[in-house]
Amino acid sequence: MTVILLRHGRSTSNTAHTLAGRSEGVDLDDKGREQAQSVIDRIGELPVKAIVRSPLLRCERTVAPLSEALGLEAVVDERLSEVDYGAWTGRKIGDLVKEPLWAVVQQQPSAAVFPDGEGLAQVQARAVAAIRDHDRTLAEQHEGDVLWIACTHGDVIKSIIADALGTHLDSFQRITADPASMSVIRYTAVRPFVLHVNHTGAALTAALMAKPEPSGDAVVGGSTD
């Protein structure tokens, strides 16, 4: 199964440099709406079979044009929601960088728990579980490699990618997920394969439907010699 992790388009909170979190009513700005519309052409003829999204408005707005174009109703999954930043929600980023917890978020995110909110380790656990569950459900409904989209948030996407790469959550800040970017992971019975990270180009086609190299001793370090 192959999932396209789509981050929502640029939001009014992004441009205001605040931590939106789960604040109600945070919408896309003009640029974000353009990005949402462009997703249709970027997906092109790729055979997307399902769309799953965070319950927050900015994700709803991001997938709406594509959902209409493909005739697919987006499924809402609470586990793909933004991080619950608790007392940090809605605050200016410039103020948050002065908080002692900010350094923990940057250097040891696995230990970061937001005041009156959740921990980043919890975020990764729920998000990866959601992706795996939808993979299994879609596998039961379709034959072969199903391509689907999960529209969610930056830190959520980074945590999923870190898991797929087999790297510790403490390294997830090395991963970038820009607004409206697409990252692609193919899950197999053996292991995940990360095909794209932070793709923001005009068309998402390169290598997407190619099959991964067969596992085994014949392939070592990318060589078949």
Automatic annotation (TrEMBL):
<dbReference type="GO" id="GO:0005737">
    <property type="term" value="C:cytoplasm"/>
</dbReference>
<dbReference type="GO" id="GO:0016791">
    <property type="term" value="F:phosphatase activity"/>
</dbReference>
<dbReference type="InterPro" id="IPR029033">
    <property type="entry name" value="His_PPase_superfam"/>
</dbReference>
<dbReference type="InterPro" id="IPR050275">
    <property type="entry name" value="PGM_Phosphatase"/>
</dbReference>
<protein>
    <submittedName>
        <fullName>MSMEG_4193 family putative phosphomutase</fullName>
    </submittedName>
</protein>
<dbReference type="InterPro" id="IPR022492">
    <property type="entry name" value="Phosphomutase_MSMEG4193_put"/>
</dbReference>
<dbReference type="InterPro" id="IPR013078">
    <property type="entry name" value="His_Pase_superF_clade-1"/>
</dbReference>
<dbReference type="Pfam" id="PF00300">
    <property type="entry name" value="His_Phos_1"/>
</dbReference>
